[in-house]
Task: structure prediction
Amino acid sequence: MADTPARRLLKFRILRYNPQDPASVPRIQVYEVEEADGMTLFIALNDIRERLDPSLQFDFVCRAGICGSCAMVIDGRPALACRTLTKNLSAETTLAPLPVFELIGDLSVNTGKWMRAMSERLETWAHTAEGNPDLGRIEAPMDADLAEKIYELDRCIECGCCVAGCGTARMRADFVGAVGLNKIARFRLDPRDTRTDADYYELIGDDNGVFGCMSLLACHDVCPKNLPLSTQIAFVRRKMAGEGLK
Result:
């Protein structure tokens, strides 16, 4: 009988800090976990919290790459813990919270606060001509190809990876980020939205909007849903530049 291959002993270097505790200081804490078949980083972190340190803070909800809650910086790259297989990591991995967002503690950040402020600022809902729409009325049909294009952009899970990887977001606190520009692109396609390019220009036609993007394209590279962010940002920028020259 062949010997069972030894399992790897994984070492996780985790940045720990609780801003709510005056005595807490940023520090690196090291944990060791035995790797299992099919293990994800999410599973490893749960193992750490259940067996080694119940005080470790990180977020999760769906465990299926849909909610975006478990986004963190994994060896310097923003990604989802639930979609990261430990077999694709080295034996020693460094974890840190996403930058830009408000830190709750350890690997947990408040992406929801940032996303809500951005959505309210950009008014990311369909602006219709009807003041009081009839909610019982059957919706007007939409061209299937157009509906598919809108759905493609609607797949954003607001995980914050694109914002965390953005150079402009590090320098401009009010930058709307790729997630915000993607939402503008989505509603610009929607025939139910009555806004014009002039209206959108008022929202994103400055350095905190589409003209602040330095086109480093980290947002495109780290998006866990593989959204066409670079294409959409370039398209929106071209349209806004044309509007600004009128």
Remarks:
- The first strand starts at residue 9 and ends at 16.
- The chain is about 35% helix and 15% strand.
